[in-house]
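Figure 3 (text version): structure tokens given as input.
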């Protein structure tokens, strides 16, 4: 309310919850918490590596590969069923 920079940070931190909306079940509300926590850790990690551009690029690449491997779907399942 008194510091626009802090208000901007608070607004960015609330984006995951605002994007998912208010959910009715406990499981759906937990998803909001998980998404918000992951977004917060991503911002924190980004703030640590931002001063070092080469390290930042390598970190983004490494995390992209880790996430892609973590959520991959077996090839047969990704094809539409006919």
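Below: residues designed for each position.
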């Amino acid at each position: 309310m008194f510091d626009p920079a802090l208000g901007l940070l608070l607004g960015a931190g609330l984006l995951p919850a605002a994007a998912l909306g208010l959910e009715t079940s406990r499981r759906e509300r937990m998803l909001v918490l998980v998404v918000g926590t992951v977004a917060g850790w991503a911002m924190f990690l980004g703030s640590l590596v931002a001063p070092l551009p080469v390290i930042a690029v390598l970190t983004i690449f490494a995390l992209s590969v880790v996430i892609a491997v973590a959520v991959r779907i077996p090839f047969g399942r990704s094809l539409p069923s006919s």
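The longest helix spans residues 26-49.
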